[in-house]
């Protein structure tokens, strides 16, 4: 073997060792926390949805493939924050924070996630740990953050 080949092999071995050490020293991401909300929250959220949101959004649009792809695998906080800061269109942010949480719980329920005895937390940091695991969506494949809640097609 030539000196050039030995240097090339040594360089590759060094690179493999460095990459392996870096990868093994990384901490794995924490597992997502189970989403919790109560039936009462979802019921209140359904009432708000019926009185405020149905003007522009159909329930079926909150469970269809577009919705699941846009929101599946994302933190509940992203959905809550999108609703809180952009809805209703006629007055974004005009509802109480608790009403936005209730609507979020309602949408979670519509998408087949079972209720529990623990309410959806009223804490941004906690909401960021809850990942929307929606049927038919591979968790790491989702729409960009710019995905929008779209009005119902008429």
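Q: What amino acid sequence fits the structure above?
A:
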């Amino acid at each position: 073997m030539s000196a050039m080949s030995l240097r090339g092999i040594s360089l590759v071995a060094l690179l493999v060792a460095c990459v392996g050490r870096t990868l093994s020293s990384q901490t794995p991401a924490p597992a997502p926390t189970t989403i919790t909300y109560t039936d009462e929250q979802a019921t209140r959220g359904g009432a708000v949805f019926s009185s405020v949101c149905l003007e522009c959004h159909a329930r079926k649009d909150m469970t269809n493939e577009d919705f699941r792809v846009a929101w599946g695998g994302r933190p509940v906080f992203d959905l809550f924050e999108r609703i809180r800061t952009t809805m209703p269109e006629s007055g974004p942010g005009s509802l109480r924070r608790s009403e936005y949480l209730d609507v979020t719980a309602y949408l979670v329920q519509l998408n087949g996630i079972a209720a529990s005895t623990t309410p959806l937390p009223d804490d941004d940091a906690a909401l960021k740990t809850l990942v929307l695991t929606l049927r038919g969506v591979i968790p790491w494949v989702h729409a960009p953050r710019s995905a929008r809640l779209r009005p119902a097609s008429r």
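Q: And what stands out in the fold?
A: The two ends are 74 Å apart (CA to CA).
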